[in-house]
Amino acid sequence: SRIRLEGSGQEAAIRRFAFARGGGTDFRPVLAEAAGLAPSLIVVLTDLDGPTGDVPPGPPVLWAVPAAPDSAPRFGKVITLAQ
Question: What is the pTM of this model?
């Protein structure tokens, strides 16, 4: 499921969104759909628990994680939100 957020003041929409939990996300279809929107950057809020696949064509990927991962993904930049 996806939502489009435009401009500022989107906190209420984000809080209403039902985020999947429990890990095991296959990021390949998520990244393919996001790339199809022609963004400048793809930001993924995740625990990185799931397959990322090979380096996808298209925009750079920023993985925003709650804590430092045990191992880095094969592509993209990781930022830790706990810092």
Answer: 0.78
